[in-house]
Automatic annotation (TrEMBL):
<feature type="domain" description="Aminoglycoside phosphotransferase">
    <location>
        <begin position="36"/>
        <end position="232"/>
    </location>
</feature>
<keyword id="KW-0808">Transferase</keyword>
<dbReference type="InterPro" id="IPR002575">
    <property type="entry name" value="Aminoglycoside_PTrfase"/>
</dbReference>
<dbReference type="GO" id="GO:0016740">
    <property type="term" value="F:transferase activity"/>
</dbReference>
<protein>
    <submittedName>
        <fullName>Phosphotransferase enzyme family protein</fullName>
    </submittedName>
</protein>
<dbReference type="InterPro" id="IPR011009">
    <property type="entry name" value="Kinase-like_dom_sf"/>
</dbReference>
<dbReference type="Pfam" id="PF01636">
    <property type="entry name" value="APH"/>
</dbReference>
């Protein structure tokens, strides 16, 4: 109760500050996430998003402004960065969406890929911008995955209670296959042209509106090869295409990646499991790998392609 009271007091003070300093009178507030508010004002609906540092907030504002200047309009606008208490807030117009895209639907899968490719094309020149060269982190695929794998191993005793022995063994073997094969092709990864990757291509970050589709939530922005975003996209899409290798080798926007050994090795890593196990642990429910037989065949085919 005390924490809720403090939180409510903090929101009240923030809203009074917005009205006094910026003339924004908050009429209604809906909490989307602990750090994201949807507010209704006399000037329409807006999204307030909290960041820990001015750098994080200003990085978003700079990215949005420069991309829109270049002609990429399928993203939110940021009207300003507000410093309040020890936090920094961005203020954005609310995007009225019909729905998020759904990777179970073929058209949505295609539209999200087209939008992602367009974003990469517009963001690639920004890699050379002095601000982004110094203020945006580099994404190191091997190191990032090694960190996640070590965290997974740390919780292995608990996960053994929640996962079937065969499926857990499969996850560990897939991860080890990545760590075995990828170092041989690591130099090729570093020769890839880089762009500003989005970093979180979950389907809920693609919105369909009356005027088109939008890509939102750039908080995991990083400098890396575009393929890093496509690896994440594939890990989220594969359950909806029955882990079909043919889907990747025949797709016009993905098949060129399938010719790169480092990319094939990266496909072996069970990124979805490494992403979802924390949620399973919190809920303390059984963790089952969907389409397990199809996935085993997928991994075997990818390993054959590498060899």
């Amino acid at each position: 109760m005390m924490n809720k009271q403090r939180r409510d007091d903090g929101w009240h003070r923030l809203f009074l500050f917005l009205e006094k300093e910026y003339g924004i009178k908050v009429q209604k507030c809906t909490v989307i996430k602990p750090h994201v508010f949807l507010i209704e004002t006399s000037g329409g609906k807006k999204v307030l998003k909290k960041y820990r540092t001015f750098l994080e907030a200003s990085r978003q504002q700079m990215l949005f402004r420069l991309l829109k200047t270049e002609g990429f309009l399928a993203m939110p606008s940021i009207e300003g960065v507000i410093a309040f208490s020890d936090d920094y807030w961005t203020i954005q117009p609310y995007i009225q969406a019909h729905r998020s895209l759904d990777y179970r639907i073929e058209k949505d899968r295609e539209d999200s890929l087209i939008l992602l490719r367009t974003y990469h094309a517009f963001s690639q020149p920004l890699v050379r911008h002095p601000f982004f060269q110094t203020m945006v982190p580099r994404y190191f695929l091997y190191e990032k995955r090694l960190e996640r794998y070590r965290q997974f191993l740390h919780m292995l005793p608990a996960l053994q209670r929640l996962m079937k022995k065969e499926e857990l063994s499969f996850v560990l073997s897939c991860a080890n296959a990545f760590f075995t094969y990828f170092p041989s092709y690591r130099s090729a990864f570093f020769t890839e042209q880089t762009t500003m990757i989005h970093g979180d291509v979950a389907s809920h970050n693609f919105l369909r509106t009356e005027t088109g589709s939008y890509l939102i939530d750039y908080d995991l922005l990083a400098i890396a090869p575009p393929a890093v975003d496509y690896l994440q996209y594939i890990s989220r899409v594969m359950p909806h295409v029955q882990w079909s290798v043919a889907f990747l080798t025949q797709h016009p926007m993905l098949r060129t990646f399938m010719e790169k050994p480092w990319f094939l090795a990266a496909l072996l890593f069970p990124a979805d499991v490494m992403r979802e196990w924390r949620i399973v642990m919190e809920r303390n429910v059984p963790f089952t790998i969907s389409h397990f037989d199809n996935r085993k065949r997928f991994v075997q085919k990818i390993m054959n392609m590498i060899r």
